[in-house]
């Protein structure tokens, strides 16, 4: 465990406000509990075992992760119930790693085709891995069409896998006004896929969905489980989608003004600190909670160009500024650690233990 | 030093083809030498001391870096001549770190305002740090207007700094057809700034410029030094700008097909492996050298959606595919190591020693 530094490091660096984080954890847990849904948050957002433990303390039943290597790191840290929400391809070495994981934790993985179900069944050699069929609910990434979920489930069962249900990521919620529609699509797709499993006499016990922008609309008469990730930190995308306010953003990047031209300032947090994510509908490359009308017009690796409103006084060189990154999952994956703050003081540092764990 | 693995790891991972890398190193060195320019390559692109040593072996006089922490890591690895091409803000702790560096290596840094020159002079307390005035040649990021370079140089000299010249980054070369114009702007801005220094009796011994897309046009009657970075690896941006061919791309990301829908395949290298950079003029989120007409239409953290031309056979699940990332500096900064390949076999691994060194 790293120890808390007595002073802040040089910019740029990440801080997490513990009070806001705890409110976000609590709200996420209450939202799920009130609607009778199980919470299995996606820990790819934070990659930090300490934070995963806080999620379990707030009632999460287990964690969701994106890769086998993330799952290995969390298993090493003591987590014993993990869903890899990805159509994991069982290459020889990756299959061996999955069998190793299945010996020590309760492991679930996704499949999204007859071929991958057959390959996975053969590669896992009877290891006790539960399988969920991934369904495309409108994001059009991985996932089968709902009507085809039955065929995939049957192939998986015939290949010796234990099929426990279906899941989807309604990622088309990431567009202005898209949350409600994505939630309706999620309910429709999961419902149809669950029926398809039932028609093949496979019980869809787990019906898993959820994303931070759509979770308010997730249909608890259809789903059993939610997997939001970003809700613990929030970010500029969530602010601009209307999912949260700046007061609900717990993670920010601390930066320093290094240059000034007119009403533009350059700060030292560029794409290597903030991440380069920018959706078509985003107003810039991040936001400044203290200057809500400022916009980050341009981003280089170590420069962010912030345009201030004409009415603002241009800050002096050396001034510290807080930036809310566009997509916090990418931001965290650039950092080796972040600084945990309570009441403005650094009280702890958390290592981003699963940073870069893509395989 | 990491030892070479006998087999490849699970995807996604980065490989560097040593033959292509050496040709790129040689060409970059020859380009500069033939035109009488000193080569001081930007090592923020690769962050690898082994590769920096190859650059010195090919005739580079020293390295360029972007941050004090990168410079510390390279100084620890034995590099003794480093230019931090950035208007470094001398906070108390960062100034102390710069003074520490100046005790053990030849250190240059940038300044781009009277205020930062004064602050830097006061903070460095007479440490032997050389200073270059940063000039805006049209990229409109940091840097003073050329005519103002004299005033900044005078302020720096009065603050006790040793001003040795001027530099610019003609980053507006990163647009189709922009390389030649950016090189002309670079020559014009550096020429005017150098005159401004001379008019204040400060000798602009070092006149530094260069970017990979503009370097072919850099004016050797004006400049003394080039600082390209990307040329060692190249990337999809360079291919699409016409700066290089696929055969000159030395770094690629190895990925696996995990899902298929029609003529789209999903591979397991997403934004956390490739980086999310996408210029407005880019045709997608990266390119596939073996399938030059394919396009990466969408990128999630662990998914890239590749649209294949109708004439192509859709590859089987589990097929390995090579991806050229859009912006290799961002890609490298996501990885802890890369695998060095010669003749298709992994012969070494290089740690990305300065990964995440943003401060």
Automatic annotation (TrEMBL), chains A, B:
SUPFAM superfamilies in the cross-refs: PLP-binding barrel
Pfam families referenced in this protein's UniProt entry, alphabetically: Ala_racemase_N, D-ser_dehydrat
Keywords carried by this UniProt record: Lyase
InterPro entries: Ala_racemase_N, D-amino_acid_metab_enzyme, D-ser_dehydrat-like_dom, D-ser_dehydrat-like_sf, PLP-binding_barrel
Keyword Lyase: yes
D-serine dehydratase-like domain mapped to chain residues: 250-342
PANTHER family (alphabetical): D-SERINE DEHYDRATASE, ZGC:162816-RELATED
Homology family: Belongs to the DSD1 family.
Name of this protein: D-TA family PLP-dependent enzyme
Organism of this sequence: Leifsonella bigeumensis
């Amino acid at each position: 465990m790293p120890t808390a530094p007595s002073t802040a490091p040089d910019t740029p660096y990440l801080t997490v406000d513990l009070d806001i984080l705890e409110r976000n954890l609590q709200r996420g847990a209450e939202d799920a509990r009130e609607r009778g849904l199980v919470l299995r948050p996606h820990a790819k957002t934070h990659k930090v075992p300490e934070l995963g433990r806080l999620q379990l303390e707030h009632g999460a039943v287990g964690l969701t992760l994106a890769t086998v290597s993330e799952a290995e790191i969390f298993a090493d840290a003591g987590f014993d119930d993990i869903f890899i929400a990805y159509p994991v391809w069982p290459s020889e070495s990756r299959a061996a790693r999955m069998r190793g994981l299945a010996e020590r934790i309760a492991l679930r993985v996704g499949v999204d085709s007859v071929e991958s179900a057959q390959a996975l069944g053969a590669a896992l050699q009877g290891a006790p891995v539960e399988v969920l069929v991934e369904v495309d609910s409108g994001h059009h990434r991985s996932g089968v069409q709902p009507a085809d979920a039955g065929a995939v489930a049957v192939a998986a069962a015939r290949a010796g896998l234990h099929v426990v249900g279906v899941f989807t990521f309604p990622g088309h919620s990431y567009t202005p006004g898209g949350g409600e529609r994505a939630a309706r699509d999620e309910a429709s797709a999961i419902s149809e896929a669950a029926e398809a499993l039932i028609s093949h006499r496979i019980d869809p016990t787990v019906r898993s969905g959820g994303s931070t922008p759509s979770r308010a609309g997730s249909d608890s008469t259809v789903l059993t489980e939610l997997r939001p990730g970003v809700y613990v930190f929030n970010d500029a995308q969530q602010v601009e989608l209307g999912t949260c306010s700046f007061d609900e953003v717990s993670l920010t990047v601390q930066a320093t003004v290094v240059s000034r031209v007119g009403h533009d300032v350059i700060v030292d947090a560029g794409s290597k600190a903030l991440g380069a994510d920018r959706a078509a509908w985003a107003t810039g490359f991040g936001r400044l909670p203290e200057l809500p009308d400022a916009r980050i017009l341009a981003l280089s690796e170590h420069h962010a160009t912030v345009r201030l409103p004409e009415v603002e006084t241009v800050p002096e060189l050396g001034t510290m500024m807080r930036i809310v990154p566009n997509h916090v999952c990418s931001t965290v994956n650039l950092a080796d650690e972040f600084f945990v703050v309570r009441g403005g003081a650094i009280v702890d540092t958390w290592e981003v233990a699963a940073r870069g764990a893509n395989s």
